[in-house]
Amino acid sequence: MTASTDGQLGLAGRGVVVLGASGHLGSAAVRALARAGAVVVASARKRDPLERLVRSVREAVPGAAVCVQPADLGEAAEVEAAFDRAEQEAGTLHGLLCLAGAPLDAPGPRSDPERLATAFVRGVADVILASQAAAERMRRHRSGSIVLVGSIYGLVSPDPRLYESAPELESPPGYGAAKAGLAQYARYAACRLGPLGIRVNALSPGPFPRPEVRRAGAFADALAARTALRRVGEPEEFAGAALFLLSDLSRYVTGHNLVVDGGFTAW
Which member of 153, 163, 175, 252 is catalytic? Predict the structure, then answer.
């Protein structure tokens, strides 16, 4: 990333909270934000993975302004503490990237009622509440960017044929439904927060398999073959899209669902 690009991003010194920071996509986003000069609060439920992430970011980006603030998305006080930390470190909360809240139901011919309910609470309700809490901070300075992470499976159904070699990896029914709900909420919130200078967008990644899934070979190859680019995504490519939506480069973009899938849903 060049110095001129950094200036266009407008993220230097701005406070950004990443909820769900310790996963492979969240980690890449934290690194990209740190390189752009943002003041990054890395947040997830477990402290140890966050501390390892922050150490690696500081080694890779000398002088990086990145800190650890554990938070469970379902605990409002912990989420508020992450926002407090951003304000303490940067003065204001500029951005929220929410990767947390993945639904917890399981594949099967019939959903378990309790797990399905949990999926929608964790995957939709908790995310909405966190974004509303962030917006309350942002309205004080009448600016900010909220990015909710959805999925292409909020747009299309998983193709069961792709999962014949790895049925345990197929997305359960509540997952896509919850992610579709996030895209709709982003539109809803954008229309109400726009007059306050707050932008709200969704970011829907396609096939970004975890390293252990990629090493397994056959399933990752099947995903790659399904895309227009004939490959799966790299975490840094997700991070670039997140950086765009959080930055000044997208200051006229709100209520949008940015699909980053290598052309998976183009046909």
Answer: 175
Is residue 265 one of the residues assigned to a domain?
Answer: no
Which stretches of the chain are DSSP H helices? 3-9, 24-35, 47-60, 76-90, 113-120, 126-138, 173-193, 211-216, 218-226, 235-246
d(C-alpha 80, C-alpha 205), whole Å:
27
Give the domain CATH number at 64.
3.40.50.720
Alpha carbon separation from 113 to 103, 118, 123, 125 (Å, rounded):
13, 9, 15, 17
pTM higher than the cut 0.85: yes
Give the number of domains in the chain: 1
* CA geometry: angle 89, 90, 95, nearest 5 deg: 115
Q: Which domain range does residue 36 map to?
A: 3-260
Assess if residue 179 is contained within a domain: yes
Is residue 175 annotated as a catalytic residue, yes or no? yes
Residue 266 lies in a domain: no
Show pLDDT as tens, one digit a residue, over the chain (267 residues): 444 456 789 999 999 999 999 999 999 999 999 999 999 999 999 999 999 999 999 999 999 999 999 999 999 999 999 999 999 999 999 999 999 887 666 667 778 888 889 889 999 999 999 999 999 999 999 999 999 999 999 999 999 999 988 888 888 888 999 999 999 999 999 999 999 999 999 999 999 999 988 887 789 999 999 999 999 999 999 999 999 999 999 999 999 999 999 999 999
Q: Is residue 227 part of a domain?
A: yes
Q: Which of 156, 145, 153, 143 is nearest to 186 (CA)?
A: 145
